[in-house]
Amino acid sequence: MTETSYRIQGATGEWEVVIGLEVHAQVTSNAKLFSGAATAFGAEPNTQVSLVDAAMPGMLPVPNRECIRQAVRTGMAIDAQINKWSRFDRKNYFYADLPQGYQISQLYHPIVGEGQIEIVLDEKNPEASTKVIGVERIHVEQDAGKLMHDQHPTSSYVDLNRSGVALMEIVSKPDMRSPAEAGAYLSKLRTILRYVGSCDGNMDQGSMRADVNVSVRRPGEPFGTRTETKNVNSVRFVMAVVEHEASRQVDVLESGGTVVQETRLYDPDRNETRSMRSKEDAHDYRYFPDPDLLPLELDDAFLEECRQSLPELPDVKRKRYEQGLGLSAYNAATLTADADTARWFEALLAEGARIQKKSEGEVAKASANWLLSELYGALNRLGKSLEESPVSPEEGAELLALVADGTISGTIAKQVFEIMLETGERPAAIVEEKGLKQTSDTGAIEAAVADVLARNADKVAQYKGGKEALFGFFVGQTMKAMQGKANPQVVNELVKKGLA
Amino acid sequence: MTDLTDLTVADIRDGFRGGDFSAREVAEAFNANVAAAKALNAFIVETPEKALGAADAADKARAAGETLGPLAGVPIGMKDLFCTQGVQTTAASHMLEGFTPTYESTVSGKLWAAGAGMLGKLNLDQFAMGSSNETSYYGNVISPWRRKDGGNAALAPGGSSGGSSSAIAARLCPAATGTDTGGSIRQPAAFTGISGIKPTYGRCSRWGIVAFASSLDQAGPMARTVRDNAILLEVMSGFDPKDSTSLDLAVPQWEAHLSSDLKGKTVGIPREYRPDGLNAEISAMWDRGIEWLKDAGAEVVEVSLPHTKYALPTYYIIAPAEASSNLARYDGVRYGQRDLPDGAGLQDMYAATRAAGFGPEVKRRIMIGTYVLSAGFYDAYYTQAQKVRALIARDFELAFEKCDLLLTPTAPSASFALGEKQADPLAMYLNDVFTVPASLAGLPAMAVPGGLDAAGLPIGLQVIGKALDEQTVLNASLAIEERAGFTARPDKWW
């Protein structure tokens, strides 16, 4: 664990920033928290609304088991206390996007209690730069609908598609001390949610958004007054909010003012936060237990099923990649940062081990290197994601096996890969068709070596005169003459022999 | 030929099956009574065509020899708190005037599926808030009863199910649905000389019933006999996955197990229900009830429910608190009334809509509820009330260690004149003093008529049972019914 020393240099000295995040994560589920309506993103307005979501008279909420299950699994993934008894409360306020006039949430008895998330501040050196951020609680609640102000010159319209969709509110402790830590926390949380499959983490579609609580203080002093910047929807913006808000607060304090506890909004176009409402006009939400719902009681069998269904989590996987597969810390961190990448990598690994009849550990390094350099390079060039990769893990493994068993050289492999990307053909077929198989035919290679040495008599003389660096030149020329298909080891040996 | 509208539900059911009359004849007879009783103002919407439609379907099914539902041929009234598909549902509020649900409440749906037909939507206190049916936006319901003194004072049919009680007593329908939050089935039943049962909380689904106070609201039947109540309750009860508080239990065959033999049963008489100054006629009726139950074979013991005196204040914290939140959805945005003054913003629209849409009693309860839930008062009122509610429930549990049922008066007086208590909400709230404790404890409780007071108005008794023991409640009520021999009916003046 390391103490970060991020400090804001004010006119009157150093300031420390204190950050807590409340992340709203939309639960991955086909149906809403208390109704059977669908939850797909981007549907036509008001097409995914049940009688319950529209709060018609006499309608009642019924908890959706899948949403509860996902919240529990998420809690387990951050090592949190799971509360076998929890309860839903009503948060009462009037707004046009809130049909019931209250949001069903969990104030007094959340489903998940304290947990923790370990963040890595330097990917190159993950072990030396970790920090544990506490999670206060996770509760589940309903999302609100959406107001549309652009449909009519003088009226606003309401889209209730999102009304009643299940959210997890994941509340951190005020444990972060720099924009980088806040960014790392949010990224790590998103990674965990995607691993668990409880939230798709798509911040641009609003399925994950953060309320950023920021305060500043002199190092070692008690917490200052905080502001809350609502609905920030990217890692970058969260970091920007912290930076902006911290320096704004320092300016206020240093010019003799006081920070007002208030809700603020972030404007990404201007990169600034603006006051939305202050504590004075804060709502009195009149929370009370929802009398339409019984307390939520979870039994051991349900909890066990949740636990069994959890995948290997990113921290465990990263350590296994390092210690079990022998990957570098950096590669292990990169491959596990995203559930899809790890899944792709493991498919590549399994197939490689299978066709090469080796252990996963024996094929891990070559597989990781190829994925992170060759494949990622190509995907970047093509502007595609891993999911859209034109080459499958099976095809990748086949290519790597051709290199490993000496059928082709690494250089030829790059050519074959390019052809795979273009044509979608299998690597073995490409090698066969284009005659790219590497040769170990010593006769042909000896002839090529002899020819190269004969054509470069001057360089042979220089080599023999002590300029040993020319060895690579002779090898390269021989490979060129062999069109790259000669087995490099055989070439090395024969060049050595020819120069002897 | 007997007047078909004098028949009980059981009579109609059996007579129709036996071919004594057609369902259409029954429906026409009740439709005619409804049409001729505008003076009672018991209905907000009359649906004679619905009653006839169900009757014709029943006649056809019988002619074809098909299996008949348990209520085939029986027309009933539907309290206008139940959402009915395609038929305006208002909760007697201006707020929902013109609101026509696209869905059917679970309970009303079960009744139609059992073959019952709808005579109309019955008037009630606005959002079921009231004890005299004087808070309806659609005008007061008048009781068919009048005092013997020759005065023509219009009397209260009780509330909130006052349309139901008035209509049944006046033979506009043989039975009706009610809902009971703090006594809204039992007190109007007592005021009009009929019977009605509030079952254990969770027996009847609340889905599709306009909510007043979710933790207390229960649907139940109202009719002229205990047997009729048993018949209807069997149809109305049952687990509903759409209501999280609905009980996942099989529905007992209450009618088949009706028995007025109470040998082996012990009746508890709670001493706290006999406060100083209890109306002498009510007190005397209670004593008669005790004798009737002894006569039926029961033993009688005195029990104590020490927290009874806190029940009313507790109820008037919890019910308004839940109501203030439940009624937040009536905001003018999606359905019902919308009052949008020129240039109004969202907040103005809310204020104007709710100011115009809700009546004074509803506003009073929303304000009380908002107050008791607000920051700084929550613990002193709401939290405290929840604790007392638990103590009241505990009182009953301890009492039921010594007895199987409780006998009490239903209301502290007979019906009063409309307008008599309207100026004083607290005096009005006192009407519920005997009915509210069982509501807070979620227990089954039934009102059954016992006789007439000196003024010629009905007064009745309340039987309270253990949770889920509706059978004992019905059986004890039947024993009273048999011994009381209550045959009085209001003279037709309307």
Helix/strand-derived category of chain A reads alpha+beta
CA-atom Rg of chain A in angstroms? 30 Å
Side-by-side strand order of the widest sheet of chain B: 4-6-5-10-11-9-7-8
Percentage of residues assigned to helices of chain B:
25-40%
Mean pLDDT of chain B: 97
Based on CA atoms alone, the radius of gyration of chain B comes out at 21 Å
Topology, number of strands of chain A: 16
The CATH class of the domain at 4-263 and 441-484 in chain B turns out to be: Alpha Beta
CATH superfamily of the domain at 4-263 and 441-484 in chain B: Amidase signature (AS) domain
Residue share in β-strands of chain A: 15-25%
Q: Terminal Cα separation of chain B, in Å?
A: 23 Å
Beta-strand fraction estimate of chain B: 5-15%
Alpha-carbon distance between the two ends of chain A: 57 Å
The CATH architecture of the domain at 4-263 and 441-484 in chain B can be given as Alpha-Beta Complex
The helix tally of chain B amounts to 15
How many DSSP E strands of chain B? 11
Task: Please give the largest β-sheet of chain B.
Answer: 8 strands, mixed
Describe it for me?
The complex is a heterodimer of chains A (500) and B (494). Chain A has helices spanning 65-77, 179-196, 235-254, 300-308, 314-323, 329-336, 339-356, 360-382, 393-404, 410-423, 427-434, 442-455, 457-464, 471-481, 488-499; strands at residues 8-10, 13-26, 85-86, 89-92, 102-105, 115-120, 130-142, 146-148, 157-159, 166-172, 208-217, 227-232, 262-267, 272-278, 288-289, 296-297. With 500 residues, chain A is of the alpha+beta class. Chain A has 3 domains: 8-306, no CATH class; 312-434, no CATH class; 442-499, Orthogonal Bundle (Arc Repressor Mutant, subunit A). With 494 residues, chain B is α/β, with parallel strands linked by helices. Chain B has a domain at 4-263 and 441-484: Amidase signature (AS) domain (Amidase signature (AS) enzymes), CATH 3.90.1300. In chain B, 36% of the residues lie in helices and 13% in strands. In chain B, strand 7, helix 8 and strand 8 (299-303) form a beta-alpha-beta unit. The two termini of chain B are 23 Å apart. At the A-B interface, loops of A face helix 9 and helix 10 of B.
